[in-house]
Design a protein that fits this description.
Layout (H helix, E strand, L loop, with lengths): L1 H4 L15 H6 L3 E7 L21 E3 L5 E3 H52 L7 H11 L1 H8 L11 H6 L38 E2 L3 E2 L2 H5 L7 E2 L12 E4 L4 E4 L3 H4 L19 E3 L14 E7 L22 E2 L5
Antiparallel strand pairs: 1-10, 2-3, 2-4, 5-6, 7-8, 7-9, 10-11
Length: 328
Protein backbone atom coordinates (compact mmCIF):
# COMPACT_ATOMS: atom_id res chain seq x y z
CA UNK A 1 0.00 0.00 0.00
CA UNK A 2 2.86 2.35 0.80
CA UNK A 3 4.40 1.67 -2.58
CA UNK A 4 1.10 2.36 -4.31
CA UNK A 5 0.77 5.71 -2.54
CA UNK A 6 4.13 6.92 -3.74
CA UNK A 7 4.28 9.11 -6.83
CA UNK A 8 5.63 7.63 -10.03
CA UNK A 9 9.22 8.47 -10.87
CA UNK A 10 9.28 7.16 -14.41
CA UNK A 11 9.27 9.18 -17.62
CA UNK A 12 5.52 8.64 -17.95
CA UNK A 13 4.54 10.54 -14.81
CA UNK A 14 2.38 13.49 -15.85
CA UNK A 15 0.94 14.71 -12.55
CA UNK A 16 3.30 17.65 -12.17
CA UNK A 17 2.21 21.28 -12.34
CA UNK A 18 4.65 22.03 -15.14
CA UNK A 19 5.74 20.54 -18.45
CA UNK A 20 8.70 18.20 -18.32
CA UNK A 21 11.26 18.01 -21.09
CA UNK A 22 9.88 14.68 -22.31
CA UNK A 23 6.29 15.98 -22.34
CA UNK A 24 7.37 18.97 -24.40
CA UNK A 25 9.13 16.69 -26.90
CA UNK A 26 6.17 14.33 -27.09
CA UNK A 27 3.85 17.27 -27.76
CA UNK A 28 6.16 18.57 -30.47
CA UNK A 29 6.94 21.79 -28.59
CA UNK A 30 10.71 21.53 -28.77
CA UNK A 31 13.43 19.05 -29.49
CA UNK A 32 15.85 17.70 -32.04
CA UNK A 33 14.51 15.22 -34.53
CA UNK A 34 16.80 12.80 -36.32
CA UNK A 35 16.12 10.74 -39.38
CA UNK A 36 18.22 8.49 -41.59
CA UNK A 37 17.99 9.31 -45.28
CA UNK A 38 17.63 6.53 -47.80
CA UNK A 39 19.20 6.10 -51.20
CA UNK A 40 16.23 7.77 -52.92
CA UNK A 41 17.02 11.01 -51.08
CA UNK A 42 20.32 11.47 -52.94
CA UNK A 43 20.90 12.44 -56.55
CA UNK A 44 22.64 9.79 -58.68
CA UNK A 45 25.87 10.66 -60.42
CA UNK A 46 25.49 12.47 -63.75
CA UNK A 47 22.03 13.88 -63.01
CA UNK A 48 21.22 17.56 -63.52
CA UNK A 49 21.03 19.40 -60.19
CA UNK A 50 18.07 21.46 -61.48
CA UNK A 51 15.90 19.01 -63.41
CA UNK A 52 16.89 16.00 -61.24
CA UNK A 53 17.07 13.90 -64.40
CA UNK A 54 19.90 12.59 -66.60
CA UNK A 55 21.33 15.54 -68.51
CA UNK A 56 20.72 15.45 -72.26
CA UNK A 57 23.41 18.04 -72.96
CA UNK A 58 25.56 17.90 -69.79
CA UNK A 59 27.79 20.75 -68.71
CA UNK A 60 29.79 21.24 -65.53
CA UNK A 61 30.64 24.32 -63.49
CA UNK A 62 34.15 25.15 -62.21
CA UNK A 63 33.08 23.73 -58.82
CA UNK A 64 32.10 20.35 -60.32
CA UNK A 65 28.29 20.67 -60.35
CA UNK A 66 26.63 18.93 -63.30
CA UNK A 67 23.70 20.59 -65.10
CA UNK A 68 21.73 20.17 -68.27
CA UNK A 69 22.66 23.05 -70.57
CA UNK A 70 19.02 23.92 -71.26
CA UNK A 71 18.08 24.21 -67.59
CA UNK A 72 21.17 26.06 -66.40
CA UNK A 73 20.93 28.61 -69.23
CA UNK A 74 17.25 29.17 -68.46
CA UNK A 75 18.07 29.62 -64.77
CA UNK A 76 20.91 32.08 -65.45
CA UNK A 77 18.70 34.09 -67.84
CA UNK A 78 15.88 34.28 -65.30
CA UNK A 79 18.36 35.27 -62.61
CA UNK A 80 19.83 37.99 -64.85
CA UNK A 81 16.39 39.44 -65.63
CA UNK A 82 15.41 39.53 -61.95
CA UNK A 83 18.65 41.24 -60.97
CA UNK A 84 18.24 43.83 -63.74
CA UNK A 85 14.72 44.60 -62.53
CA UNK A 86 16.01 45.05 -58.98
CA UNK A 87 18.79 47.28 -60.29
CA UNK A 88 16.23 49.47 -62.09
CA UNK A 89 14.22 49.81 -58.87
CA UNK A 90 17.39 50.81 -57.03
CA UNK A 91 18.23 53.42 -59.67
CA UNK A 92 14.68 54.83 -59.50
CA UNK A 93 15.02 55.07 -55.71
CA UNK A 94 18.34 56.91 -55.98
CA UNK A 95 16.92 59.32 -58.58
CA UNK A 96 13.94 60.02 -56.32
CA UNK A 97 16.27 60.73 -53.40
CA UNK A 98 18.37 63.04 -55.59
CA UNK A 99 15.26 64.97 -56.70
CA UNK A 100 14.13 65.31 -53.10
CA UNK A 101 17.53 66.60 -52.00
CA UNK A 102 17.55 69.09 -54.87
CA UNK A 103 14.05 70.29 -53.92
CA UNK A 104 15.10 70.69 -50.28
CA UNK A 105 18.16 72.72 -51.30
CA UNK A 106 16.01 74.87 -53.60
CA UNK A 107 13.56 75.46 -50.75
CA UNK A 108 16.36 76.52 -48.40
CA UNK A 109 17.78 78.90 -51.00
CA UNK A 110 14.33 80.37 -51.64
CA UNK A 111 13.80 80.84 -47.92
CA UNK A 112 17.15 82.59 -47.54
CA UNK A 113 16.35 84.91 -50.46
CA UNK A 114 12.93 85.71 -49.01
CA UNK A 115 14.43 86.55 -45.62
CA UNK A 116 17.04 88.73 -47.29
CA UNK A 117 14.36 90.53 -49.29
CA UNK A 118 12.25 91.17 -46.21
CA UNK A 119 15.26 92.45 -44.25
CA UNK A 120 16.31 94.60 -47.18
CA UNK A 121 12.83 96.17 -47.38
CA UNK A 122 12.70 96.82 -43.64
CA UNK A 123 9.97 94.29 -42.93
CA UNK A 124 12.06 92.57 -40.28
CA UNK A 125 13.79 94.27 -37.45
CA UNK A 126 15.54 93.39 -34.24
CA UNK A 127 13.21 95.78 -32.42
CA UNK A 128 10.89 93.98 -30.00
CA UNK A 129 7.96 96.17 -31.05
CA UNK A 130 8.09 94.81 -34.59
CA UNK A 131 8.20 91.24 -33.29
CA UNK A 132 5.17 91.79 -31.08
CA UNK A 133 3.35 93.32 -34.00
CA UNK A 134 4.06 90.29 -36.23
CA UNK A 135 3.03 87.85 -33.50
CA UNK A 136 -0.14 89.78 -32.84
CA UNK A 137 -1.12 89.85 -36.51
CA UNK A 138 -0.59 86.08 -36.85
CA UNK A 139 -2.62 85.27 -33.72
CA UNK A 140 -5.50 87.66 -34.37
CA UNK A 141 -7.88 84.98 -35.65
CA UNK A 142 -7.02 82.62 -32.80
CA UNK A 143 -7.42 85.37 -30.24
CA UNK A 144 -10.91 86.22 -31.55
CA UNK A 145 -11.95 82.56 -31.41
CA UNK A 146 -10.59 82.20 -27.89
CA UNK A 147 -12.91 84.94 -26.61
CA UNK A 148 -15.99 82.93 -27.61
CA UNK A 149 -14.87 79.78 -25.71
CA UNK A 150 -15.88 79.04 -22.15
CA UNK A 151 -13.38 77.93 -19.55
CA UNK A 152 -12.38 74.29 -19.96
CA UNK A 153 -13.33 74.04 -23.66
CA UNK A 154 -10.87 73.07 -26.35
CA UNK A 155 -9.30 75.94 -28.17
CA UNK A 156 -9.66 74.49 -31.68
CA UNK A 157 -11.28 71.19 -32.64
CA UNK A 158 -9.88 69.89 -35.91
CA UNK A 159 -11.73 66.67 -36.70
CA UNK A 160 -9.66 66.01 -39.81
CA UNK A 161 -6.48 66.03 -37.73
CA UNK A 162 -7.96 63.69 -35.15
CA UNK A 163 -9.18 61.36 -37.89
CA UNK A 164 -5.77 61.26 -39.56
CA UNK A 165 -4.26 59.83 -36.38
CA UNK A 166 -7.04 57.34 -35.72
CA UNK A 167 -6.08 53.69 -35.89
CA UNK A 168 -9.66 52.59 -36.54
CA UNK A 169 -10.19 54.67 -39.68
CA UNK A 170 -9.00 52.44 -42.54
CA UNK A 171 -8.59 55.32 -44.96
CA UNK A 172 -6.32 57.13 -42.51
CA UNK A 173 -4.32 54.23 -41.11
CA UNK A 174 -0.67 55.06 -40.80
CA UNK A 175 1.63 53.06 -43.06
CA UNK A 176 5.34 52.53 -42.71
CA UNK A 177 7.70 53.92 -45.30
CA UNK A 178 9.01 51.38 -47.80
CA UNK A 179 12.32 49.83 -46.83
CA UNK A 180 15.31 51.31 -48.59
CA UNK A 181 16.69 49.12 -51.35
CA UNK A 182 20.37 48.21 -51.38
CA UNK A 183 22.66 48.21 -54.36
CA UNK A 184 22.15 45.05 -56.40
CA UNK A 185 24.93 42.77 -57.55
CA UNK A 186 23.97 41.84 -61.12
CA UNK A 187 26.44 38.94 -61.23
CA UNK A 188 24.79 35.60 -61.96
CA UNK A 189 25.64 32.80 -59.55
CA UNK A 190 25.53 29.03 -59.45
CA UNK A 191 22.26 27.77 -57.89
CA UNK A 192 24.12 25.09 -55.90
CA UNK A 193 27.42 26.64 -54.76
CA UNK A 194 26.35 30.31 -54.82
CA UNK A 195 29.60 31.32 -56.52
CA UNK A 196 29.95 33.55 -59.57
CA UNK A 197 28.97 31.70 -62.75
CA UNK A 198 28.97 32.88 -66.34
CA UNK A 199 27.87 31.05 -69.46
CA UNK A 200 31.42 30.84 -70.78
CA UNK A 201 32.50 29.12 -67.53
CA UNK A 202 30.39 26.04 -68.33
CA UNK A 203 32.43 23.09 -69.60
CA UNK A 204 30.97 20.38 -71.88
CA UNK A 205 30.93 16.80 -70.59
CA UNK A 206 30.98 13.54 -72.58
CA UNK A 207 29.49 10.74 -70.49
CA UNK A 208 30.06 7.09 -71.33
CA UNK A 209 26.68 5.34 -71.11
CA UNK A 210 26.64 1.93 -69.41
CA UNK A 211 23.11 0.83 -70.34
CA UNK A 212 21.37 2.75 -73.14
CA UNK A 213 18.07 1.04 -72.40
CA UNK A 214 18.20 2.21 -68.77
CA UNK A 215 18.96 5.75 -69.95
CA UNK A 216 16.01 5.69 -72.38
CA UNK A 217 13.69 4.57 -69.57
CA UNK A 218 14.65 7.52 -67.38
CA UNK A 219 18.05 6.61 -66.03
CA UNK A 220 19.22 5.11 -62.77
CA UNK A 221 22.25 4.58 -60.59
CA UNK A 222 25.25 3.44 -62.57
CA UNK A 223 23.85 4.59 -65.91
CA UNK A 224 27.22 6.25 -66.64
CA UNK A 225 30.59 4.55 -66.45
CA UNK A 226 34.30 5.36 -66.52
CA UNK A 227 35.57 5.95 -70.05
CA UNK A 228 38.78 4.01 -69.28
CA UNK A 229 37.78 1.07 -67.05
CA UNK A 230 34.10 0.90 -68.13
CA UNK A 231 33.09 0.46 -64.48
CA UNK A 232 29.72 2.02 -63.52
CA UNK A 233 30.07 5.21 -61.50
CA UNK A 234 27.74 5.28 -58.49
CA UNK A 235 29.46 6.82 -55.45
CA UNK A 236 33.10 6.83 -56.60
CA UNK A 237 34.97 10.06 -57.12
CA UNK A 238 35.04 10.93 -60.83
CA UNK A 239 37.04 13.61 -62.62
CA UNK A 240 36.66 15.52 -65.87
CA UNK A 241 39.50 15.95 -68.35
CA UNK A 242 38.84 19.53 -69.50
CA UNK A 243 40.51 19.47 -72.96
CA UNK A 244 38.56 16.39 -74.08
CA UNK A 245 35.49 16.37 -71.80
CA UNK A 246 36.10 12.70 -70.88
CA UNK A 247 34.90 11.44 -67.47
CA UNK A 248 36.94 8.83 -65.64
CA UNK A 249 37.55 7.56 -62.11
CA UNK A 250 40.00 9.51 -59.97
CA UNK A 251 41.94 6.39 -58.93
CA UNK A 252 43.06 5.93 -62.56
CA UNK A 253 44.32 9.48 -63.06
CA UNK A 254 47.77 8.92 -61.63
CA UNK A 255 48.52 5.93 -63.86
CA UNK A 256 46.72 6.98 -67.03
CA UNK A 257 46.93 10.79 -67.16
CA UNK A 258 49.62 12.34 -64.95
CA UNK A 259 52.49 10.39 -66.46
CA UNK A 260 52.19 11.87 -69.95
CA UNK A 261 49.70 14.68 -69.23
CA UNK A 262 47.49 13.43 -72.04
CA UNK A 263 43.91 12.22 -72.22
CA UNK A 264 43.93 8.39 -72.39
CA UNK A 265 41.01 8.38 -74.85
CA UNK A 266 41.56 11.33 -77.23
CA UNK A 267 45.29 11.88 -76.58
CA UNK A 268 44.58 15.58 -75.99
CA UNK A 269 47.41 17.48 -74.28
CA UNK A 270 46.88 18.78 -70.72
CA UNK A 271 48.53 21.92 -69.35
CA UNK A 272 48.75 20.47 -65.87
CA UNK A 273 46.70 19.33 -62.91
CA UNK A 274 44.47 22.38 -63.33
CA UNK A 275 42.93 20.67 -66.38
CA UNK A 276 41.60 17.88 -64.13
CA UNK A 277 38.31 18.82 -62.45
CA UNK A 278 36.68 16.82 -59.67
CA UNK A 279 32.97 16.18 -60.20
CA UNK A 280 30.37 16.04 -57.45
CA UNK A 281 29.88 12.49 -56.25
CA UNK A 282 26.60 10.63 -56.47
CA UNK A 283 24.86 9.98 -53.18
CA UNK A 284 23.87 6.62 -51.71
CA UNK A 285 22.14 5.41 -48.56
CA UNK A 286 25.39 4.17 -46.99
CA UNK A 287 27.01 6.15 -44.21
CA UNK A 288 30.46 5.23 -45.52
CA UNK A 289 29.83 7.16 -48.75
CA UNK A 290 28.11 10.32 -47.52
CA UNK A 291 26.23 11.87 -44.60
CA UNK A 292 22.90 10.05 -44.26
CA UNK A 293 21.61 11.45 -40.95
CA UNK A 294 19.45 14.58 -41.03
CA UNK A 295 18.75 16.67 -37.93
CA UNK A 296 16.12 19.33 -37.40
CA UNK A 297 15.46 21.49 -34.34
CA UNK A 298 11.92 22.74 -33.79
CA UNK A 299 10.78 25.34 -31.26
CA UNK A 300 7.03 25.95 -31.32
CA UNK A 301 6.50 27.82 -28.05
CA UNK A 302 8.64 29.50 -25.46
CA UNK A 303 9.13 28.33 -21.90
CA UNK A 304 7.30 31.37 -20.51
CA UNK A 305 4.20 30.55 -22.56
CA UNK A 306 3.85 27.23 -20.70
CA UNK A 307 4.26 28.73 -17.24
CA UNK A 308 1.22 28.27 -15.07
CA UNK A 309 -0.34 25.57 -17.22
CA UNK A 310 -0.38 21.95 -16.22
CA UNK A 311 -0.22 19.18 -18.84
CA UNK A 312 -3.94 18.52 -18.40
CA UNK A 313 -5.01 22.11 -19.14
CA UNK A 314 -5.18 23.82 -22.50
CA UNK A 315 -2.30 26.28 -22.89
CA UNK A 316 -2.53 29.73 -24.41
CA UNK A 317 -1.71 30.32 -28.09
CA UNK A 318 1.93 29.90 -28.92
CA UNK A 319 4.02 32.99 -28.39
CA UNK A 320 7.05 31.82 -30.36
CA UNK A 321 7.11 29.86 -33.58
CA UNK A 322 10.23 29.00 -35.49
CA UNK A 323 11.39 26.00 -37.42
CA UNK A 324 15.01 25.59 -38.40
CA UNK A 325 16.14 23.48 -41.29
CA UNK A 326 18.40 20.51 -41.23
CA UNK A 327 21.87 21.00 -39.84
CA UNK A 328 24.68 21.03 -42.41
Amino acid sequence: RAAAAMSRHSKHSNDRAYYTNKERKDAGFAGIRKDVLGTDCFLPFGYCALSLKPAKDPVVTPEGWIFDREFILEHLLKQKIEKQQEAKKYEAQEQKKARKDAADRQEEETKELENFRRVDQGLLSEDDRHKRALEKSSNTAEAQAAKKLRQGELFVIDKAEFRSKSFWAPECTQSAAPSELKKVDTTTRCPMSGKKLRVKDLLPVKFEVTDQKMLDEGGGRGVYCCAVSKHPITHQQAVLIKPSGIVMLERLVEDCVLKDLRCPITNAKLKGKEDILKLKQGGTGFAAHNEVEAKSFSMIRSWSADAGHSPGTSPEPASLACIEGADP
